Amino acid sequence: MTALIALAAVALDRLLPEPRPHPLAGFGRLAEALERRWNRPLHAGNAWRGAAAWALLVLPATALAAVLGALPGWPGMAISLLLLWLALGGRSLDEHARPVAAALADGDLDAARAASGRMVSRDTAALDAEGCARATVESVLENGADAVFAPLFWFVLAGAPGVVAYRLANTLDAMWGYRSERFGTFGRFAARADDVLNWPAARLTALGYALTGRTRGALRAWRTQAAAWESPNAGPVMAAGAGALGLRLGGPAVYHGTRRERPVLGAGEGPAGADIQRAMALVHRTLVVWLLAIGGGALLA
After folding, report:
1. Are 66 and 160 spatial neighbours (Cβ–Cβ below 8 Å)?
2. How far is 6 from 182, CA to CA, in rounded Å?
3. Which of 163, 167, 148 is nearest to 175 (CA)?
4. What digits encode the pLDDT tens for the residues 58-103?
5. What are 179-196's pLDDT values in tens digits?
6. Which residue among 90, 139, 265, 285 is least crowded, i.e. fewest CB within 10 A of its CB?
7. Which residues lie below 8 Å from residue 174, measured CB to CB, with a gap of 6+?
8. Bridge partners for 249 per DSSP
9. The dihedral of CA 280, 138, 204, 90: what is its sign?
């Protein structure tokens, strides 16, 4: 039944637009309000405040998902399907990436900068065409892991509570997991929790990219370059993705007005607009492999 729910949720994600307003938007507003009340950057024990805030936001929702997902018969299955569908972001990822590719194909650099700025946290106002393509390809590869494969992994492993815990933890990491004066202590637990929860799915995603792309190049980049990346999970995913596509990613980028020197990932030429579609196709092929593996595992079980 888990495999059928996973397949159905992926189908719904492809066929239906995201609900408006999305439940995660309400969760985000709640997290913002709690952070404003509890975050005291200059006070001792602020890391514990952040951990307590994380637990207050994640654990009750996870427990409720466990209760509702365990309901017998179709109610439990329907709730599990709904929760997994809400956690998946494959369609949204495509909808954000396509406008960048279309703008670059039309030679409209301003539109490409604006569209890529809606996907990434780096400054895009001064990017050239290759910079817009690089930012978008990197986002497609990394968010393929975060918004598609990790929710599937946790649903298969732990059902409805697993996918809810992962998605909420990932959202809090995106909101609080910054090494800044405001979040450096308060968001420390959120960042570490996301690292732990993403660790297995990130490596399975990297393996999927390698199997469905240029395998030798992907494995070589993963083995030799991933460890140099700042994030322990984004490194394998993006290195394997760059190698699978035969592209050179990474390198310098500007975040909030500050230039950061990032390692180079992969090899070959820098990305162009057409490579955005190739990155999306890599994620789609990897998703097919994952669904086949989930279905095959269910049959063997």
Report:
1. yes
2. 38
3. 167
4. 999 999 999 999 999 999 999 999 999 999 999 999 999 999 999 9
5. 888 999 999 999 999 999
6. 285
7. none
8. 265
9. negative
Q: What is the mean pLDDT of residues 121-150?
A: 95
From 79, 94, 70, select the one nearest 23 (Cα to Cα): 79
Rounded CA gap, 68 and 79, in Å?
A: 7
Specify whether the backbone of 214 is left (phi greater than 0), alpha (psi in -120 to 50) or beta: beta
Residue whose token pair is 């990197």: 138
Residues comprising the chain, all counted: 301
- Write the secondary structure of 236-247 as one string of H (helix), E (strand) and C (coil): HHHHHHHHHHCE
* SS3 readout for 23-73: HHHHHHHHHHHHHHHHCCCCCCCHHHHHHHHHHHHHHHHHHHHHHHHCCCC
Span 250-300, pLDDT tens digits: 999 988 788 989 999 999 999 999 999 999 999 999 999 999 999 998 888
pLDDT band at 178 (very low <50, low <70, confident <90, very high): confident
Predicted TM-score (pTM) of this structure? 0.95
